[in-house]
Specification:
The chain is mainly alpha-helical. The protein has one domain (about 1-260). Helix content is about 80%, strand content about 0%. Helix 6 (about 100-125) crosses helix 7.
């Protein structure tokens, strides 16, 4: 058991150390919130009628925060394919540790990276006047953590059958970008045409975004205008699909490693 925990922490630490050495990725942590929240959110809000009942900039902030945590962890799993191409994963897989420990360590490492990026988004939110009390931040932390873990499990499932980093970089955006709109990151999705309604409810990111908004808008009058489901329902859906994605994705990844 101690060996497994040590392996998980070592793999997680490796990914977080890579972030500290990647200045471009750290810089992007501050650029994208500025583009999405500061520019997109503010410009859209200025063109909306004043009687929508809530701040659209805050709406976009909560969506971008959850989306970044989910996507960053999911896309960070691409480095598993890079490790495979560099034969780093082969060295790990011949070591006497559980395959699930390897995957969990990878997800935890990318979760730490994403949470660090989340702190940058929150700092930017405070800078532009997003109302963020200590109480809100306290409850947003576990919601953000769940979004990261869920994104990591989703990334494992998607990337487990991709053969190269090039194919992952080409295919993954087509899987993740439509979720920006179907999950309601930038646009309200409470009322949609039947076809889009179904699509939005089967998108994993929808539940990460809605959980973050459910926590932020808890006990607020705007909640009924914005939040789709109860916090307990979002937690249940995320928990169930996290387990499914993790078990299935890990099994497929291990299978492909054996067939390499």
């Amino acid at each position: 058991m101690i060996n497994q925990i040590t392996a998980i922490l070592t793999i997680a630490q490796r990914d977080f150390t890579k972030l500290l050495r990647d200045r471009a990725r750290i810089l992007a942590t501050f650029i994208f919130p500025f583009l999405f929240i500061g520019i997109l959110g503010t410009s859209l809000e200025s063109n909306l009628p004043p009687n929508i009942g809530y701040s659209f900039k805050v709406f976009v902030f909560t969506g971008v925060l959850a989306q970044t945590l989910f996507q960053s962890t999911a896309s960070g799993i691409i480095s598993l394919i890079e490790d495979r191409e560099n034969d780093f994963s082969q060295e790990i897989f011949v070591s006497p540790i559980s395959r699930y420990s390897i995957i969990i360590g990878k997800i935890l490492g990318e979760t730490a990276v994403s949470m660090a990026q989340g702190l940058g988004i929150i700092a930017f939110g405070l800078l532009i006047g997003i109302p963020l009390s200590l109480e809100k931040l306290t409850f947003m932390f576990p919601a953000g953590l769940m979004a990261c873990l869920f994104g990591g499990a989703f990334g494992i499932l998607v990337l487990s059958n991709l053969k190269s980093q090039r194919s992952a970089n080409q295919i993954f955006p087509f899987i993740i970008f439509p979720q920006f709109f179907l999950a309601g990151v930038f646009n309200p999705i409470k009322t949609l045409p039947p076809f889009l309604h179904i699509l939005s409810r089967v998108m994993p990111m929808t539940y990460a975004v809605d959980l973050m908004r459910g926590v932020y808008y808890a006990n607020s009058p705007e909640k009924n205008l914005i939040v789709l489901h109860s916090i307990s329902w979002n937690v249940l859906v995320i928990s169930v699909f996290f387990i499914i994605f993790l078990l299935l994705g890990t099994a497929l990844f291990i299978k492909n490693e054996k067939n390499k």
